Amino acid sequence: MNECEVCGSKNLTSFEAMERMYGLNDIFTYKECENCKGLFLSEIPENLSKYYPEEYYSFEPYKASSSLVEFIKKVRFEFWKRGINFKPPNYFTWLSNLKVEQTSKIADIGCGNGQLLAELSYCGFKNLDGYDPFLTNTGVTKGFTLIKKDFFEITEKYDLVMFHHSFEHIPNPEKIFNNLSTILNPGGEVLIRVPVTDGKVWQENREFWFQLDAPRHLFIPNTESIICLADKYSFEVIKIEFDSLESQFWGTELYRRGKPFVGTDIAKEFSKKEMDIFKTKASQFNKLKIGDQACFYLRKN
Ligand SMILES: [Zn+2]
Fold this sequence. Notes:
The protein is of the alpha/beta class. It has one domain (12-300): Vaccinia Virus protein VP39 (Rossmann fold), CATH 3.40.50. 29% of the residues lie in helices and 24% in strands. The chain has helices spanning 67-81, 90-96, 115-122, 173-183, 200-205, 223-232, 247-256, 266-269, 272-287; strands at 12-18, 27-33, 39-41, 105-109, 127-131, 139-141, 144-147, 158-164, 184-195, 219-220, 235-242, 293-300. The strands form two sheets. An eight-stranded mixed sheet has the order 6-7-5-4-8-9-12-11, sandwiched between helices. Strands 1-2-3-10 form a four-stranded antiparallel sheet, with no helix packed on it. Helix 7 crosses helix 9. It is globular. The mean pLDDT is 94. Bound molecules: zinc ion. Residues 4, 6-7, 9, 33, 35-36, 38 line the site of zinc ion. Zinc ion binds at residues 4, 6-7, 9, 33, 35-36, 38. One of its GO terms (biological process) is methylation. GO terms for molecular function: methyltransferase activity. Keywords: Methyltransferase, Transferase. Pfam families: Methyltransf_23.
């Protein structure tokens, strides 16, 4: 890889990163684009599946709500649409920034057990498809469909395509955008929730950054990388929201201590007070746009 897959810049610098989540300590080379500040795994290992042990993809079945709770969720959504809020869940915020309606065709890429699709179906959304190449249970469930497919195999058309922390696991961001322009209906929307290199934690800790997650994260954008891709494929950037969590601090500190994420008792490493401080700091970082993950809302022109 000699040029940035996003902006085409040849000004790339290399650095090494270790597998830290499982403590395997294998070393990988990443390239950082000095122009758009995106990070690329230099060479995708042939045995990438080694880094996705079975438990990574052991999807628990989604938690179905009882018909009473389902009814309450539906009512809560109908009230929210009219401006009346009862503890709105995160996905209400996402929906509020999009034009989608209950009849819109929606795809969730890397949907796991389909929990989010189930929640949307309780709110009255009717055309919901979840894609994940690692699914074991597929087919039509009450209210949504789970499909075992790679993102690049999708040919159906959608009004909204969502990536909730799956974008960074798919190779070649430019190819992703190219495919998005094919599978979106005119005026279709994209929601991408992804780690970003705008984060102060990345800038200060580099290879110890919790969300670098070598070698599973194949590409980590900067907000500049997404803006560049949107521009290239005629997407309008409607909104960028930082939604980083306290894990950026404790996870990174854990890796600095040389401890893996899997197998370490986090509650023994950090006190309740420390965790509260991390939480407050995360929301401050989001306001300052220096959190380590963001939510991008895009619309196809
Ligand atoms: Zn670049």
